[in-house]
Each structure stands twice: as structure tokens, then as C-alpha cells.
Amino acid sequence: MSELRYDLPEADAFTRTYWDAAAEGRLLIRSCHGCGRAHHYPREFCPHCWSEDVVWEPASGRATLYTWSVVHRNDLPPFGQRTPYVAAVVDLAEGPRMMTELVECPDPALLRAGTKLEVAFRDGVPVFRAEPVRS
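Above: the chain sequence. Below: its structure as C-alpha cells.
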């Protein structure tokens, strides 16, 4: 019997587009034609102006670190095998804020608000890692 996982989403008819894109390594956000603002999590209306004229658009995959917490204990599978891990809130380049996990983070003590990040995908779920330093 397979172990129940708490880290994988259950797509519904509306969010299936988002999760299918993520499974292909693409991050989508919703953008409003009424006010021009992007938002996340996906909704069928704009949370800024309430317009229903919203569409899926590709996100750049760039973000900056807003806040984070190092999780040392989590009994839900498969999180227990990942501890310690970094739960984070990031500001997407397009404006919306997103809850996520930071990966490839060998020393969380070095994290700073504003750290530049890029999207990665694990099991079809967007996660973020520090952008490589470019010279």
C-alpha cells in the first residue's frame, strides 16, 4: 500500500491548467485584463478589481525571497524525510507573492530577504532555488 502524500496537489477543473503546466516545467499566473495586475494563487476572478476577465500567462520564473522558516520537524509524509527544509514566501517578478519551498539550500543561515531566486520543479510542484551568480 502506498503512503499518503501531503505535498502533492489535487487539481480540479479550474486549476488543472496550472498543474499541467507545472508538470511540464512551466509556471503560470493569472493576469487581469481589467486592471492589468497579476495574482496568485489561481482564481477565476481578479482579487484586486473583481473582474472576471482574467487569463493564464507564463511567469518568468524569477522571484525574490520575502520571508522563510527552517522546518526541523514535520510528521506528515514525505516531509519527515526532507527535514530540515526551508518553507518560504517569495515575491514573483510579476508582482504576486507565493508560498513555496526553497531547495538546494545547503546553509539556510545565509538566506537574506531579497535573495534572487528562480523556479525549479519537483514532482510537478513549483519550488525555488537561489539564482546562480552570473559574471
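The CA atoms of residues 22 and 124 lie 5 Å apart.
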